[in-house]
Amino acid sequence: MSARQDEREIPQHIAVIMDGNGRWAKKQGAMRIFGHRRGVQAVRDITEGCAELGVAHLTLYAFSTENWSRPKKEVDGLMSLLIKTINSELPTLMKNKVRLTAIGDLQGLSLGVHKKLLGAIDTTRENKGLNLILALNYSGKWDLTQAFKAICGEAIKGTLKLEAIDEGLVADYLSTKGIPDPELLIRTSGEMRISNFLLWQSAYSEFFFTDVLWPDFRKKHLDLAIDSFNGRERRFGKTSEQLDFQ
Ligand code: IPE
Ligand code: IPE
Ligand code: MG
């Protein structure tokens, strides 16, 4: 069940494609990394906002498998920013009872980043508040592929019968196992594409696109996204009339 606030339905799971850091920096005549650094302020504000609203899961797309194709200097800058941010934000996460988790091909991260991340995940493990999920070295196609590989492996070994494979089982092999699909998916910066994010999990997400660049995104924008979500009729294939009689 999702939380309710003043009769507004608060999604249980919000996913965000944080986009526009580079363009934000360019507008200031600054280097791209400056935009990424300012983006951390938006992460802080939105994490706090989601915790206050009673959102259970917030997934932030922080680094895609495709982002390795960026200039080495930018990739290195992003990775050291990640380490720095974990260090600086950990006390606040603990204070606000935020549990940090991660999805993605974490083995593909550098040893330093991987260790820092696992350390923070472990430190926040018992926190009972918001589950903050960082999508790192993540892509929807990677997620589906690793799931198919694991499923086929079991089937070949004979520990899984073909008849047992259904949508629920596939979902259990994805990196988001146990987490409800996001009801609301937000993308900033005016781009209207999924960029290989939660392909399976967003099958029925409501999309909210805004021109606001990620470093400028704040609680008031999150509020607009939730208002928009509340104005949607989620039919899941049914007709409006059927929903009226529920
Ligand atoms: C999003 O901002 C951050 C990451 C993808 C890591 P961008 O860096 O993509 O910013 P733009 O799209 O170039 O403005
Ligand atoms: C998507 O943003 C990935 C993240 C936000 C981490 P990009 O800026 O990399 O996406 P494209 O390349 O414009 O689709
Ligand atoms: Mg971008």
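^ magnesium ion complex. The chain has eight helices and eight strands. The chain has a mean pLDDT of 97.
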